[in-house]
């Protein structure tokens, strides 16, 4: 069969364009910020993937693909080292795959792109898979997550080969938090003063559905296919926890914001702006893979698709009645707004931000590395058309691109043509350099996704431990990923 990527016959556009919604959009900062419902306290959860209709924009009905009936799906609260299983049943019109992003997960549960959860009665022949022999299918798949890892914000999302981008766009994303006693003993803001924030842009078609250029790869060969598919799909509506430009009432205390960029392709550069134009500091306490050693203060914080930042925002000196807007410096028009906090109550602050947050960050040295590898992330020829390539090759499920040994420390040198947020499964990494110089302030800590900027190179250092087996690395611009920018990593 044809893959979505191989079917492309158009030259990749480097910038893309924003899809314009065809329904009336609400003003910013009127819809209250939803907080996804929480699953906790059990060692097994059952999630039914199903289509629902929801009112995302006031007065507009939107069909979604969901984990358990909502977008985002439920937030799973878990404890370090306490394994859970999550049984996913597929009642969607299409096959799916679940990946826990940032999880230290055995390969059988990591959501390999051809390990499908299929709807009952689905026949996977002729539906665009490269190699039917590589496909494993079940109607319900039980994923096992040992969660033997640093506490952090993870997220789960669809990962089906060639179809991740449209599936996530339609709603298949949810958050998962890992906690432990040591982190809880720090006295960071918690309870009502801790908020998960899943930021994702979307566009809405005239019938209220989420507008996406095409989910049928054969259509991609036809004239009139919308351009942004190739560079990445961008919407004109910014959703936070599934609500458009929401507002949250807050007290005059510190809040811990667990920020995730779950957008397919949109980058944000966030800042917190007061009514009078002054900015509040964003105090970063954690990265993709948990707490930093010490806090890092930012005036603005760039966040690429799939990255997470753990940030303290202090409303302690903000006058009651003020609005603090979180805006995107990279946006224009409606995509400049993200969300707002309305400071409504004076309150004593029970939290503290310790000078030292954690002492268990891996400190691999260059001399620990047993090998250095080079990877280019570039557009290129793919089949009869254009796609996105790693090391000059598009993804193939039956080819091992990298073989390493359990326990080996490696340095990876990456180079990009355009923006590529590169994600490595299983192993967290440290960023050693950018363009031969120092990493950026927000590169601190343990990461699982690095945002390569146009023309930039970066060096990562990591240690492959945990499990043997087949894993992935790929660009997390979801359209790039679907169009070839993914590779296999075998840990032996
Ligand atoms: Cu968030 Cu391989 O993905
Ligand atoms: Cu990319």
UniProtKB/TrEMBL annotation:
Residues 52-182, 377-490 form the Plastocyanin-like domain. Its EC number is 1.16.3.4. It comes from the Bacteria. Transmembrane segments: none annotated. Gene3D superfamilies: Cupredoxins - blue copper proteins. Keywords: Metal-binding, Oxidoreductase. InterPro entries: Cu-oxidase-like_N (IPR011707), Cu-oxidase_C (IPR011706), Cu-oxidase_fam (IPR045087), Cu_oxidase_Cu_BS (IPR002355), Cupredoxin (IPR008972), TAT_signal (IPR006311). SUPFAM superfamilies: Cupredoxins (SSF49503). It catalyses: 4 Cu(+) + O2 + 4 H(+) = 4 Cu(2+) + 2 H2O. It is an enzyme of class 1 (oxidoreductase). The keyword Signal does not apply. PROSITE patterns: MULTICOPPER_OXIDASE2 (PS00080), TAT (PS51318). Monomer. Belongs to the multicopper oxidase family. This is Multicopper oxidase CueO.
């Amino acid at each position: 069969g044809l893959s979505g990527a191989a079917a492309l016959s158009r030259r990749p556009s480097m910038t893309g364009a924003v899809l314009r919604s065809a329904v009336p959009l609400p003003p910013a900062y009127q819809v209250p910020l939803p907080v996804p419902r929480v699953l906790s306290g059990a060692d097994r959860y059952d999630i039914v993937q199903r289509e629902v209709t929801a009112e995302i924009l006031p007065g507009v009905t939107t069909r979604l693909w969901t984990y358990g009936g909502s977008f985002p799906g439920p937030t799973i609260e878990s404890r370090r080292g306490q394994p859970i299983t999550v049984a996913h049943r597929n009642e969607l019109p299409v096959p799916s795959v679940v990946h826990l992003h940032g999880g230290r997960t055995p390969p059988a549960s990591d959501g390999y792109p051809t390990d499908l959860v299929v709807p009952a009665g689905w026949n996977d022949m002729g539906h665009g898979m490269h190699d039917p022999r590589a496909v494993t299918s079940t109607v319900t798949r039980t994923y096992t997550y040992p969660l033997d890892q640093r506490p952090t914000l993870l997220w789960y999302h669809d990962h089906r080969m060639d179809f991740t981008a449209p599936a996530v766009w339609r709603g298949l994303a949810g958050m998962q938090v890992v906690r432990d006693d040591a982190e809880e003993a720090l006295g960071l803001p918690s309870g009502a003063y801790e908020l998960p924030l899943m930021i994702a842009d979307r566009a809405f078609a005239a019938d209220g559905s989420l507008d996406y250029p095409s989910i049928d790869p054969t259509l991609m060969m036809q004239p009139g296919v919308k351009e942004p598919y190739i560079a990445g799909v961008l919407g004109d509506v910014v959703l936070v926890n599934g609500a458009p430009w929401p507002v949250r009432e807050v007290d005059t205390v510190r809040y811990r914001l667990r920020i995730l960029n779950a957008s397919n392709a949109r980058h944000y550069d966030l800042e917190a702006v007061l009514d009078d134009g002054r900015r509040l500091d964003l105090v970063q306490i954690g990265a993709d893979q948990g707490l930093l050693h010490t806090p890092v203060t930012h005036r603005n914080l760039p966040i690429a698709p799939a990255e997470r930042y753990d940030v303290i925002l202090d409303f302690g000196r903000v006058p009651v009645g003020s609005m603090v807007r979180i805006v995107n410096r990279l946006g224009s028009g409606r995509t400049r707004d993200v969300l707002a906090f309305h400071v409504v109550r004076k309150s004593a602050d029970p939290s503290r931000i310790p000078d030292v947050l954690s002492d268990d960050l891996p400190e691999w040295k260059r001399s620990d590395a047993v090998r250095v590898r080079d990877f280019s992330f570039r557009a290129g020829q793919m089949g009869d058309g254009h796609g996105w390539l790693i090391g000059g090759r598009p993804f193939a499920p039956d080819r091992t691109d990298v073989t390493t040994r359990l326990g080996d420390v490696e340095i990876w040198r990456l180079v990009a043509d355009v923006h590529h947020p590169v994600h490595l499964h299983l192993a967290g990494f440290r960023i050693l350099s950018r363009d031969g110089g120092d990493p950026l302030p927000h590169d601190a800590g343990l990461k699982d996704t690095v945002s390569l900027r146009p023309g930039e190179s970066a060096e990562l250092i990591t240690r492959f431990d945990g499990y043997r087996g087949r894993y992935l690395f790929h660009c997390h611009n979801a359209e790039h990923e679907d169009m070839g920018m993914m590779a296999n990593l075998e840990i032996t």
